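Suppose you are handed a protein chain with no further information: no name, no annotation, nothing but its sequence. What can you learn? This example shows the usual starting point.
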Amino acid sequence: MRRFGIASLVVGGLLLAGCAAPHDPEVTFFADGETVRITPSPVCDDKLEECKPTGELAVPSGKSLNISVPKQVAEAPWLVVFRYRAADGSVQKARSALFGDRGTYAYTLHAPTAADQLMHVEVQRIGGIGVDENQQSVFGVNASWALTIK
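A reasonable first move is to predict its three-dimensional structure. Written in structure tokens, the prediction is:
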């Protein structure tokens, strides 16, 4: 009887856990001894190219930003897009390579030079890939995690 009672509790607990509301996947950003975890950005432009940040983190010039993504991101193609202020004061845009091997859970972002200052970073999960009229790859973003660098 006791064995049946424990088994019932275990099965009941598993059923309740399976009924819990799913949560938005969080991406973790780490730099200079500080960590921030953020959920997907709810407000983006029409092309999902610029999203309202849901977190902020200090990343001094010359320091790297470590990014860790959960399974829901790692199992889809994803990439990192970012803006930075170059040493000459100009604002530049860049992106990482596309991670599509379904096994990349982390990435370390380095500004192009030690004098460059990161300003804005987004992890973008890709929902589809196409080609535009100039035969350039176009990524359909289905979720974005945006971070402001302070």
